[in-house]
Amino acid sequence: MLHTGLYLFAIILASAVEMVEAMTIVLASGITRGWRSTLEGAGVALVVLAALVGVFGPTLGRIDINILRLVIGTFLLIFGLQWLRKAILRASGYKSQRDEALIFQTETQLLSKGADAVKGRRDPIAFTVSFKGVFLEGMEVIVIVISFGASDGRLGLAALGAGIAALAVGGAGFALAKPLAAVPENTMKLAVGLLLTTFGTFWGAEGAGMEWPLGDIAILLLLALYAVVTFTAIAYLKRSRIATARVAG
Amino acid sequence: MRYFKAFGLFWWDFLIGDTPELAAGACVIILLAALISRSALVAALLVPALVVLLLGVSLQRGRKA
């Protein structure tokens, strides 16, 4: 039960982070260049993504579960550590925080050039920008959903998690018609990094033939260990950055 | 050809990007887990410790970048 809850939480959070990024691009394109081509671009991207899931989803079901866990666990471990590293460096001030409002402003300025000339007509720029944004961020969502679903043999539950995230982010984005700057994306990225690293370690090692002594409880212990290490690293790096700045000043 | 290149670049950026040490380190850790998988307790202690060490090394690299 706890395992399922944590698993669903990881998928919703990971999908939501990528969807917020796609939403920012779609909104910037729709507001500046018109909604028709923007929505067409986003729609075509969603159809292509659905086709990819339709092709690769059932194929994965036929592969040995241990091989899947080995490959996907390693992949999740790499991806989780990348997110965790980025989130720690951002939280400690070594990397600038992602700002959806600023990204939206920059995208809007870039896209508004020549926008008046195409208002009301089909616009290849709006279509391409929207398609690329939704397709690339959507690919990341699909990789996460298929990875989780295939490793645990619960593709339906993984897809449900992504669906919940899509409804929440899509609904909020269109209702507000502005970037979701209030979403604590950096904090979400840190939580997702912790969860992906935890599941990646657990499944990767299991796929390699290891049996965790406490079974599923090991997931909670891994999560606790990585959380303690993460918050200790943030505190240490923050202090170290301030001390370096003082010496330099 | 352009699409294959773009597909390859997507995966390269997705998995390796500017942190090749994480991709290589994670593969080494999982390989090691396979080698010591018979000693469950040793593996259960060593694998997470190596993951923490790998993150530390990568953070140190990221801090200097």
Task: Tell me briefly what this model is.
With 249 residues, chain A is mostly helical.
Explained architecture:
Chain A is an all-alpha fold. Chain A has one domain. Chain A is built from 9 helices and no strands. In chain A, helix 1 (2-33) packs antiparallel against helix 2 (35-60) and helix 8 crosses helix 9. The termini of chain A are far apart. Chain B is mainly alpha-helical. Chain B has one domain (16-64). Chain B is 85% helix and 0% strand. Chain B contains 3 helices and no strands. In chain B, helix 2 (20-35) packs antiparallel against helix 3. The longest helix of chain B is centred in the last third of the chain and has 25 residues, at 40-64. Chain B is flat and about 50 Å long. The chains are: A mainly alpha (249), B mainly alpha (65). Chains A and B meet through helix 3, helix 6, helix 8 and helix 9 of A and helix 1, helix 2 and helix 3 of B.
Strand and helix map with partners:
The complex is a heterodimer of chains A (249) and B (65).
Chain A: H1 2-33, H2 35-60, H3 65-91, H4 100-111, H5 115-118, H6 124-152, H7 155-176, H8 185-207, H9 217-248
Helix pairs in contact in A: 1-2, 1-4, 1-6, 1-7, 1-8, 2-6, 3-6, 3-8, 3-9, 6-7, 8-9
Chain B: H1 2-15, H2 20-35, H3 40-64
N-to-C span of chain B: 34 Å
Global outline of chain A:
flat
Portion in helices of chain B: over 70%
Q: Major beta sheet of chain B, specifics?
A: none
Stretches of chain B where pLDDT falls below 50 for ≥5 residues? none
Helix/strand order of chain B, N-terminal first:
HHH
How many runs of DSSP E, i.e. beta strands of chain A? 0
- The secondary-structure class of chain A comes to mainly alpha
Integer count of domains of chain A: 1
Based on Cα principal axes, name the global outline of chain B: flat
**Total number of strands of chain B:** 0
Radius of gyration of chain A, whole Å: 20 Å
Given the structure, what is the number of helices of chain A?
9
Number of helices of chain B: 3
Fraction in beta strands of chain B: under 5%
| Poorly predicted ranges of chain A | none
Helix content of chain A: over 70%
